[in-house]
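FIELD: query
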Amino acid sequence: MALDDICSPRGEFNAIMMLPPPAPVPPVGAEGIMSTNTFSINNDHRLDLPTLDTPPRILLGAGPSNSHPRVFSAMIAPTVGYLDSAFIQVMDEVAELLRYAWQTDNEYTVVVSGTGTSAMEAAFANVVEPGDRVLVGVAGYFGRRMVDIAGRYGGDVRCIEAVWGEAFTLDEIRQAMEIHRPQVLAVVHAETSTGVRQPLDGLAGLCREHDCLLLVDTVTSLGGVPLYIDDWGIDVAYSGSQKCLSAPSGVAPLTFGPRAMAKINHRQTPIANFYMNAELLGKYWSGSPRGYHHTAPAHLFYAMREGLRLVAEEGLAERWLRHQSVAETFWAGLAEMGLTPHVALEYRLPSLTTVRVPAGVDAGAVARRLLNEYNVEISGGLGDLAGKVWRVGLMGYNARRENVAVLLRALAEVLGR
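FIELD: result
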């Protein structure tokens, strides 16, 4: 067959000339099943659902918090590809705004496509090698999760324990480091299960004395509580999007300082994780050209960008002051009702307050009434504090006095105070 026979005058391939005639369509039976098919479709799980209509809750629990309306608006931007130049620009802007929010110049500052726990796992997966001693300050539920994850990557995990609702002193950590001589010290800056803000002063100096990395959980502090990654000498930090940053969950900030990157670059064993692998993620975030790693959730990146843009517009000092001031208003209202925060003022976290449940009160029943009758969500206690406290988050967009007023009035009515 000559070339002219299979090409159109415009040089286009004439597919009709090359294809065999179409096969006849098999007849369709009464049940909508082709008669040549010996299988039938099971419709047991086929649902005819209405359009999704979730209630507009006031989310004052431990997270997620309500997203800022501007964040939702950003999420309707068109989808683009994960290597589109427009998306690469979004990634670069997110990284730079994160450096501001975290007060760091770390080159390796990214967001992981996953929740805060994914960033926690990424932190340990990259800096912990089998046999490395990891000292974890366990003062709550998420300290225990650190122990679990570090152990899964072969760490020789040692613990220092604190009563849930208390913080570690520098001397307690110093003594534990002298005993265990760890390669990684891991602490939670803002323990979401207890409402404790762990002081970080002096920890970087201790870590450098012991040639040890300082790894810090900042999930409930980033964007709401004073936090200085570089000035405080933090080597590894991670966070979440759904707390003080007022964005949906699903992407999680992660930063590695120079000492952490040196550890990663001189590992004796391969990183035992593909999805959270710092080397592979780094090629996507800063490679030249950018290298494919995974299909990033574009709309969650848009949300993170807008959440961080709100942080920059407000200014960190002003944002931290707002969270502190709103929390103090809440604490004063609790005192008037005869309710007591679980954590001493010195270590109390402004973004999340644990409130002691009065004797004889069913904590879960109160939370259910607040949700069902007032549309307000608060959280119950976790782990050692289950049934003993309520956890109230005043984070990001929700750190407003009108939310405090609504919650205090609802609590007073439910408790009869």
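FIELD: remark
The chain has two domains: 58-62+315-415, 70-313.
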